Amino acid sequence: MYHMRRFGESYWPLYRAVVRLDETFDHKTLLSWIQGDRVPRSVASFKILARIEQRYRLPEGYFKSKLPHQTRSLHGHDLGDISPAERRRISLHLPDDFNKLPFSKREEIVDWVRRVIVSGSTDYRRYQAAASKQRYAIRFPGVTYGGGSLSPRSTSLSASANPDATEAAEDPDLLSGVVDAPPRLSMEMADLIRFKTSTLTAIGFQRNGVWGEETASQKIEHLGLMFGALAASPAGPVKGRGVPLSQLTFGLLIFPGVWDWYLQWREQRRGFYTRWEEDMLMIAQAMSRSEVGWIRQHPELLKNVRPIEGLIAPEEIEFASQDWDGACDAFHRHAANRSKEIQRVMRVHRDPFEPIMVVLEADSPLAEYRKITDEILKRIPDEDLYPRAAAEAVRSFLLLRIGLHLGLRQKNLRQLRVCPRGHFPTSERRLEDMKCGELRWSDRESGWEVLIPSVAFKNSSSSFFGQKPFRLILPDLLDLYKYLEAYIDRHRGMLLGPAKDPGTLFVKTVKTTSLDAAYDSAKFYEAWRTVIQRYGIYNPYTGRGAIKGLLPHGPHNLRDILATHILKQTGSYEQASYAIQDTPDVVQQHYGRFLPQDKAALAARILNQVWEAA
Fold first, then answer.
1. DSSP 593
2. Residue 152, pLDDT score
């Protein structure tokens, strides 16, 4: 309107000047832009905008810079036979002039977006994508552990597509899961989970250690993979062992031949041994350990074992039936020896630092990663016109900012509850029962406080906590409180819509197909990864994104960034451990590789002060 007045022109002459006779662009569309009812969304619309810029002698991109929603993707890109689902994923990362580019250039851009932004170009990601197409794992309906008791929910192995879901050794095969376990195997799994998660051990049994919710879910999935591999057809792509479902039982797990086949099968699929195989052998040793092993205390499991050619000989079953403890002892020794052998040759397949290596190698990793939050603020849409998109952008900003201040594991950040200002906070005893923390306003400190009981942490028995809760006042730096209070007061309600409030600080965008507004582990990882794809990875074809060389990653990498930053600044393992609620030994084990090249510089910084003073 402003430029039309400058040139004394109405919308109809303008329409006649910029739209060619052979084009089907509707004059009402131009009128809707002028009146503010609609905004350009398609590639064709931006062609018209470019012509108006030329007509009024305006710089290229002038009108696009005025749009109230800068992160919105265009539709109408010429992407050939790419499916609609993939179009939605990659269109946001294509330049506006994509259709004008030569075919070879367009192929190059699409390949880069697929490889770097959508999938992440690491060896592990490529292996993960290939392995996830082969479905073979066994599900255990009704055996998922949650909230301290057995839950009737079905465990979905696809929910662990997230590589950070367990914060330990993981496997992309967890993406699969299409066969329900037979009733007997399900009952055996239920008994194992009850044994390892109940508050009190059943009379007549002994155990060493208790599984938490995440550990129990992980063991269900990993054992489901093993049984699924045994049951998969040898003729199929999985190349399993072909054991009938009716013969699957936990009694198979005390025979060395079964484990040797499974370990070698995994090595052939991946090409080498990893920490994953060692962890599975630790499970085997724990279940067969003298006096406290679950299998050791259930000799009746042997009744369901049948000979399997090449894995279990009839003589082995006969020996186990006569001397169950002796068979368990023999297997325990075998598993311990196999574990030592694998430790000597195992390799790291998924380097957790690889996606963020460009950040960790910076002089100030935290300052480098903080660029993503600046990019989000730069591209927040107009809240009055796009309230939901603005709420999602503020949620993305707070995910990173609060994560960087707290250094929590994914579970603790995801389950963090919120008490709005002026409301009565949840008692510490109640938070201990729920095993989660809360963000609340502290009148004494005049700031937003995070309180998390020590029992909510994975390493709750660590000397870091000393049975005391984690308590931190968030600093009011760079408008953190402004965005946090706007999110709690307005944006969070916009995301929830009509859905039931789960009480957590971070909630999903509720859509018509949504059943629950609370994040689970996989969805939280996916949300974080989307933030990095949209705002974090620098795109040389669009100029958007904060950090060159960054790859998609999950929330657990925040801890790597905080620990490495403090190590580089201070050289202290102890101070680095404070940032991630852990011990100096753990920090040294995981992050020591980032310190050696900086040791001389740290020492020189102190020594040079003498010369500078002179």
1. G
2. 32
Three-class SS of residue 149?
A: strand
| Best CA proximity match to 48, nearest among 65, 59, 63 | 63
Q: Which of 465, 502, 432 is nearest to 577 (CA)?
A: 465
Residues 6+ positions from 474 with CB-CB distance below 8 Å: 402, 405, 439, 447, 448, 449, 450, 480, 481, 484
Query: What confidence score (pLDDT) does residue 127 get?
Result: 55
| Secondary structure (DSSP) of 537-552 | B--TTT---SBTT---
Both tokens of 404, joined, read: 């960087």
pLDDT at position 327, please?
92
* Per-residue confidence (pLDDT) for residue 603, from 0 to 100: 64
* DSSP secondary structure letter of residue 154: P
Q: Longest Cα pair distance anywhere in the chain, in angstroms?
A: 102
Q: State the SS3 of 124-151.
A: HHHHHHHHCCCCCCEECCCCCEECCEEC
* CA separation for the pair 569, 578 (Å, rounded): 14
Other residues' Cβ atoms within 10 Å of the Cβ of residue 461: 11
- Structural tokens at position 3: 């430029």
pLDDT along the chain (614 residues), means of 10: 86 84 81 82 81 86 78 69 76 80 85 82 57 62 49 34 37 49 88 89 87 83 88 82 88 91 87 85 91 91 88 90 92 92 78 84 90 92 88 94 90 92 90 91 91 84 76 90 93 90 91 82 90 92 89 89 86 82 78 58 66 62
Write down the pLDDT at residue 158: 32
Which three-class secondary structure state does DSSP give residue 516?
coil
Tell me the residue type at 597.
Q
- CA pair distance 451, 417, nearest whole angstrom: 10
Residue 17's H or E segment, with its range, is helix 11-18
In sequence order, the β-bridge partners of residue 312 are 308
**Domain 354-600 bears CATH identifier 1.10.443.10:** yes
CA–CA separation, 481 vs 465, rounded Å? Answer: 27
Give start and end residues of each alpha helix (H) in 324-414: 324-345, 357-360, 365-378, 387-406, 410-414
Q: Write the single-letter amino acid at 378.
A: K
Distance CA 107, CA 309 (A): 52
The Cα–Cα gap between 144 and 213 comes to: 9
* Residue from 365, 373, 364, 367 nearest 479 by CA: 373
Adjacent-strand bridge partners of 518:
507
Q: Give the domain ranges of the chain.
A: 1-67, 75-118, 127-345, 354-600
Distance, CA of 497 to chain centre = 25
